[in-house]
Amino acid sequence: MNAASSPNRLHWRLRQQGHSYTKSRQLVFQAIALLGPCTRPAVVKRLEGKVDRASVYRAIDVFIELDIAHVVRYRLIELSDPFRQHHHHFVCRQCGQESNFNDDRLEQALEAFAKDRGITLESHQVELSGLCRQCSPRA
Ligand SMILES: [Zn+2]
Ligand SMILES: [Zn+2]
């Protein structure tokens, strides 16, 4: 995806859903794009002096409501598919190592699953947890 198209897409998505495209929403969007999976306080901190805390929280709520962003690992905020490269998450529960992955077989399996059930699939999230290669017991 072309990163330059993101703000236009944001504008379009907000307007389409009857929300206004404000400077503070634009800044919150950029902060999430930069920080990657991040907490709400991290976004507040990043925008200190530019956007007040309440506005940051409100903007994040609107983004989640409109699926511009979503919650990963129960509390972290990340931009949704149309706004960044599609990927999934793995986090090691022992060392905390995080990695993103993508796999065509998984994508195809999900598409086939949806098709078989007559589901019009619009988005999906897959999060894996467990032990990374280093932390896994050796066979
Ligand atoms: Zn590990
Ligand atoms: Zn996927």
Q: Briefly, what is this?
A:
Helix content is 41%, strand content 15%. It contains five helices and five strands, in the order ααααββββαβ. The chain has helices spanning 6-16, 23-35, 40-46, 53-65, 104-116, and strands at residues 69-72, 76-79, 88-92, 98-101, 127-130.
Description:
- The chain is α+β, with helices and mostly antiparallel strands.
- The protein has 5 helices and 5 strands.
- It has helices spanning 6-16, 23-35, 40-46, 53-65, 104-116; strands at 69-72, 76-79, 88-92, 98-101, 127-130.
- The termini are far apart.
- The model has no long low-confidence stretch (mean pLDDT 90).
- One zinc ion binds next to loops.
Mean pLDDT: 90
Secondary structure category = alpha+beta
Distinct small-molecule ligands in the complex: zinc ion
Assembly level: single chain
Rounded to an integer in angstroms, the radius of gyration calculated over CA atoms is: 17 Å
Shape descriptor reads flat
Count of helix runs: 5
Largest sheet properties: 3 strands, mixed
Report how far the terminal alpha carbons are from each other: 40 Å
Query: What is the count of β-strands?
Result: 5
Strand content: 15-25%
Uncertain ranges: none
Which strand order does the major sheet show?
Answer: 4-3-5
- Reading the helices and strands in chain order gives HHHHEEEEHE
Task: Identify the notable features of this structure and list them briefly.
139 residues, single chain, two-stranded antiparallel sheet, alpha+beta, 3-stranded mixed sheet, binds zinc ion, 5 strands, flat, 41% helix
